[in-house]
Write a structure and sequence with these properties.
CATH topology of the largest domain: S16 Ribosomal Protein, Chain: A
Number of domains: 2
Strand content: 15-25%
Structural class: alpha+beta
Shape: elongated
CATH superfamily of the largest domain: Ribosomal protein S16
Order of helices and strands: EEEEHEHH
Largest sheet: 5 strands, mixed
Oligomer: single chain
Strand order of the largest sheet: 4-3-2-1-5
Length: 122
């Protein structure tokens, strides 16, 4: 059974509240889970102690059993000092999208034509 430590969403519309759960990876996000490990309330300020609460003993137990944390949970565990910080690399983050690149090429082509016309006029 492939286990995950992940977030299960609760709360009403526009008022999210999450449970941190250990669940079978085949179950739906808000569906059946094996154990509740904590809570996460994104509406609280980032420096609040109530924002993320985890039972670290049980989280460590599930990690030892082979459960894989999701990306968001892995970041929470890094902040808590349970996991070592993973190196992240997104080389495409700063590059413009396809349409922006096309506009830049068109602008460069027009500038080259204008420079060529100015050189011919002299």
């Amino acid at each position: 059974m492939a286990m995950k430590i992940r977030l299960a969403r609760g709360g009403s519309k526009k008022r999210p509240f999450y449970r941190i759960v250990a669940a079978d990876s085949r179950m739906p996000r808000d569906g059946r889970f094996i154990e509740k490990l904590g809570t996460y309330n994104p509406l609280l300020p980032k420096d609040s102690e109530e924002r993320v609460k985890m039972d670290m003993e049980r989280v460590q137990y599930w990690l030892d059993q082979g459960a894989q944390p999701t990306d968001r949970i892995a970041r929470m565990l890094e902040a808590a000092g349970v996991r070592e910080k993973a190196e992240r690399n997104n080389p495409k983050k700063g590059t413009p999208g396809k349409k922006a690149q096309e506009r830049a090429e068109e602008k460069a082509a027009k500038a080259a034509e204008a420079a060529e016309a100015a050189a011919d006029a002299e």
